[in-house]
Amino acid sequence: MRRRSFLPLLAGLFVAASMPPWGWWPLGFAGIAMYGSVAVRRREQSFSTGFLFAAAWFLPSMAWMWFLTAPGYIAAILIFCMMHGTASFLAAQLSTTTSTHRTALIICHSLAEVLRLSFPFGGVPLATLAIGQISGPLADLAPLMGVIGISTATLYLAVTHHRFRALCIVGFLVLLGNTWDTTHPTGRTLNLSIIQGGGKQGTHAVDTNPRDVFDVHMAATKTLQPNSQRDAVIWPENAISITNHGLFIDSPEYTEISQEAKRLNVPFVVGITEDAGPRQFTNAQVVINTDGTVTGRYDKVRRVPFGEYMPLRSLLKTLGAPTDLVPRDARAGTSRGWLDIADTRASVAISWEIFFGGRVNEGIADGATFIINPTNGSSYTWTILQTQQIAASQLRAREQGRDVVQISPTGFSAFIDSSGEVHERTSISEQHVLERSIQLRSGRTVYSRMGNAVYIWALLIAFAWLTRRRARAIRIGAS
């Protein structure tokens, strides 16, 4: 039993090591290739092989979730292991030869990764195969095929018997993605100042004085001097929290921000939370103009499970889980994902939303020339989540052909250009003001125009083909 378990576990650990913060991307191919070989040899233990492979993959690469919610971490890992265990089982059932078994493994595990984009809890798309390849050549597939294409290509290269053919096909697509740019500069740049207030990691909102968070960001902002070249100042998610059942517009924090916008003569883009009744709150990014008017607001649509709302609250409370860490649920927004800032449009993905390509694409479809990701990673210990979020911002930059600005109260904050290169990434917990000129771009990539649906349908059609082929083989055998 130990010998049968060792290789799938080792394969999964290799895949985990390809993920940020470790980032040894070639090990992703090695781990998947090892798993594929074991899965083909051990058809009778297909479910357990896939389950163990996924367990070793996700336990370390999603360890950040333990500090958010231990029950949620265990539940998510079990669900993901079940998904990939089922994918392994289906692949064994649908295959008649070693070659078709490998093809089935590629298709079924790709569909398992697709399922993770929306289930459970609305999707938990971290530690994906695509995130593990952000530093490798397959990242060039992003403007053509997005996360689904990168994940499928990773599986294809590692599992298929026809390695030379796979290298030729994927190599051509990588070359195409690297050279065929359907976006272009607008001829305009934007000079931005982003504010990281600093502070300890591993803190929760219920244990923090919200005014302290505001004060450290204001202190950093006051180090700025008026500059005619500056176009906007951006604060991170949750930098301003209104907890007295009032509104931001009526708060002293609003007055102080308005004064700074007037002093620096630029609009401010700040993250706020407001009470929305006794059991809910809102999480939004707002634009305050130089005259103090609020000229734009985007309320976060995709909420963090166990962070901004508590799934299965009654059940978890009955089991004794610490549901008090999320005493109220965030109310999901309904608006399109963009804000107009300094006479241009930004696609806005607040924190968690940067992991979902469709959220960012919504703003690009509506004419955004760059992307902002105001976030708050202060609840998490270590840097697993934060480094994967930088990787997700890199993917969104490549998918959309846009510069990305990521702003966090305690790190990481960074500028990411449209080619996915990270500039001026801050350290964790430091107070830092970053200033940089970004390029505004227009046009849409192939992925932006097609989205995920076409690739999901392609995988489903391939799965249907395998099913039909298997049924036909059974009929022929019976006759």
Characterization of this structure:
This protein has 479 residues and is of the alpha/beta class. The protein folds into two domains: 2-181 and 452-478; 185-444, Nitrilase/N-carbamoyl-D-aminoacid amidohydrolase. It contains 16 helices and 14 strands. Strands 1, 2, 3, 4, 5, 6, 7 and 14 form an eight-stranded mixed β-sheet that branches. A six-stranded mixed β-sheet has the order 8-9-10-11-12-13, with helices on one face. Helix 11 (252-264) links the parallel strand 3 (240-242) and strand 4. Helix 2 runs antiparallel to helix 3 and helix 5 (70-94) packs antiparallel against helix 6 (98-116). The radius of gyration is 23 Å and the shape is globular. The model has no long low-confidence stretch (mean pLDDT 93).
Describe the structure concisely for a colleague:
This protein is α/β, with parallel strands linked by helices and 479 residues long. The chain has helices spanning 2-17, 26-41, 46-61, 64-68, 70-94, 98-116, 129-132, 142-159, 163-179, 210-221, 252-264, 313-318, 357-365, 384-400, 446-450, 453-478; strands spanning 183-196, 232-234, 240-242, 268-275, 280-288, 294-299, 329-330, 338-341, 344-348, 370-374, 404-407, 414-416, 422-423, 432-443. The protein is globular and about 80 Å long.
